[in-house]
Design goal:
The chain is an alpha/beta fold. It folds into three domains: about 5-240, Rossmann fold, CATH 3.40.50.300; about 255-340 and about 420-510, 3-Layer(aba) Sandwich (Rossmann fold); about 350-420, no CATH class. Helix content is about 30%, strand content about 25%. The protein contains 17 helices and 22 strands. It has helices spanning about 45-50, 75-80, 95-100, 115-125, 145-155, 175-190, 200-205, 230-240, 300-305, 330-335, 345-350, 355-360, 375-390, 405-420, 435-450, 465-470, 490-500, and strands at about 5-15, 15-25, 30-35, 60-65, 65-70, 80-85, 160-165, 195, 210-215, 220-225, 260-265, 275-285, 290-295, 315-320, 325, 340, 370, 375, 425-430, 455-460, 470-475, 480-485. Strands 6-7-8-3-9-10 form a six-stranded mixed beta sheet, with helices on both faces. Strands 16-19-20-13-21-22 form a six-stranded mixed beta sheet, sandwiched between helices. It has a four-stranded antiparallel beta sheet with strand order 2-1-4-5, covered by helices on one side. It is globular. The termini are far apart.
């Protein structure tokens, strides 16, 4: 059978970095072909080449056995290739319907936009994803998970022969992931070739027919998924054995709470809208890792942003830090209360993309690093160097942060949060878009920080991550806590049921 897509000795260099080095493999119609590797292995570069985002490279790309070289994404789309990007590039001012039909707008008489028809078709495209997104909403008002769903719907609307999916589930909850996987199975059965990039090994092995491994820009191997196992693939990705998972002991909640949240509610921006958080109450103890689970829109991010003083809406209720009231209206007030946040959207809300690594780490701590209002360069350099060593960041302090892989950018954001010496660390999807090696390093770091007495709240759409890290897990649905599981009683099934409102919403507690 002639492959629908072939790479032949594809190479690409960016200045001094060899992103791809003579990569060759084939993709067939009606298969899910996973491409895996560490951050910086060249996966996204290869996908951007086949999707026409990158037009200059060495080697050949063959489509239906014929050499192609796309000059733009539009050229690739016309040829039957569509891509869902890892880093979302939506225009915040556009409506959802305008974003879905960007570049192929529906027009009526005299070329006037037919917005009503675009909104109708947008609703139809979003329906298979079971999304509640309003086609008239502005993209900039959507949470990152909903933006991801819009990107997925746009790619599916093109009915491509080759669909490139670069980390399509990184911002989705487990339920949304299962829904997308059902769509992927249908596309494969219809003969669509799917190039699938993911750092989630469980996803790869559920979906993929074959797995191609890249390392340092080079092809390592292509293996039938049925004949492989996750640890073997991980070993091929990193070129070494991964360290065993960090040991996590259950924390006994005998001491007074570090944080108490009582009857916390978040008023909506519009009077007719439903509150984003309703009557949230919980506590957090020293050295405890508390997990937050829930579907998209359940309120996980809103809760963390509220506790970090970064929420856009007014809250009511009581927040106590070691028994003392905190008024968390701004991030500065949260920092004074010893609370720091690592955001879920590092591209839009986390990094300063035009700046080097050093100020990206040290900027929030300038007050601590200064004397008489002047930042001491020596203090800044030493603090950044210590943070880079502690978190094993692969990147020099003077290089632009966007030149680092996603995993190393994430480590910089965690380093930044730790530099203000918080008592409570809030992490929103801390390993989103991070490869297996970097994920293991981040997990080990969080376990070690907990041993040292740091208290953490971790929100994640990856249930295995919560189950391995957390002492307790709170489940949110519709802005309410529907269940609380101690580590010993938590399972993926019970969490999903509570998140979907299937189980009794009464809170579950440890015996």
């Amino acid at each position: 059978m002639t492959p629908i897509l072939s790479f032949r000795s594809v190479s690409r260099r960016f200045a001094s970095i060899q992103a791809l080095d003579r990569v060759s493999f084939d993709v067939h119609s009606g298969e899910v072909h996973a491409v895996v590797g560490e951050n910086g292995a060249g996966k996204s570069t290869l996908m951007k080449i086949v999707a026409g985002v990158i037009g200059e490279y060495d080697g050949e790309v063959l489509l239906h056995g014929q050499r192609v070289k796309f000059k733009s994404p539009r050229d690739a789309e016309v040829a039957g290739i569509s891509i869902i990007h890892q880093e979302l590039n939506s225009v915040p001012q556009l409506t959802v319907s305008a974003s879905l039909f960007l570049g192929r707008e529906i027009t009526g008489f005299a070329g006037v936009l037919n917005e009503a028809e675009m909104e109708r078709q947008a609703s139809r495209l979003l329906e298979p994803l079971d999304s509640s997104i309003n086609p008239r909403d502005r993209m900039g008002t959507l949470r990152i998970g909903d933006q991801q769903l819009v990107e997925i719907a746009r790619a599916l609307a093109l009915n491509p022969a080759v669909l490139v999916m670069d980390e399509p589930t990184s911002a989705l909850s487990e339920t949304e992931v299962r829904r997308l996987e059902s769509i992927i199975h249908k596309l494969r059965d219809q003969g669509t070739a799917i190039l699938y990039i993911s750092h989630r090994m469980d996803e790869v092995f559920r979906l993929a027919d074959r797995i191609t491994v890249l390392r340092d820009g080079r092809f390592v191997d292509t293996i039938a998924a049925a004949k492989a196992e996750p640890r073997q693939i991980a070993r091929l990705m990193v070129g070494r054995e991964l360290p065993p998972a960090a040991e996590r002991q259950q924390v006994a909640n005998t001491a007074d709470p570090v944080l108490e949240v009582q009857s916390l509610s978040l008023a909506p921006a519009r009077k007719t809208a439903q509150p984003k958080l309703q009557n949230i109450s919980f506590d957090l103890h020293r050295g405890e890792i508390l997990g937050l689970a829930g579907l998209l829109g359940a309120g996980r991010t809103e809760l963390l942003e509220c506790l970090a003083g970064a929420g856009a809406d007014r809250y009511s209720g009581v927040i106590l830090r070691e028994g003392k009231p905190c008024d968390l209206r701004t991030p500065a007030e949260a920092a004074r209360c010893g609370i720091a946040l690592v955001t879920e959207d590092r591209k839009r809300l986390g990094i300063f993309p035009q700046l080097p690594v050093l100020p990206n780490i040290t900027m929030p701590a300038w007050r601590l690093l200064s004397r008489l209002g002047i930042v001491l360069k020596t203090n800044e350099d030493e603090s950044a160097a210590a943070a880079i060593r502690k978190l094993q960041v692969k990147g020099a302090p003077d290089v632009r942060i966007t030149s680092l892989s996603g995993g190393n950018q994430q480590k910089c954001l965690i380093a930044r949060a730790l530099l203000i010496q918080p008592r409570i660390l809030l992490l929103d999807d801390p390993t989103r878009g991070v490869d297996v090696a970097a994920k293991a390093e981040i997990h080990s770091l969080l376990v070690e920080l907990a041993r040292e007495g740091l208290s953490m709240i971790v929100a994640s759409g990856e249930l295995p991550e919560l189950l391995s890290l957390c002492d307790r897990i709170l489940v949110l649905a519709g802005g309410r806590i529907t269940a609380e599981f101690p580590r010993s009683a938590a399972t993926e099934e019970s969490i999903i049921e509570a998140a979907a409102g299937i189980s009794n919403p009464a809170r579950l507690t440890a015996d």
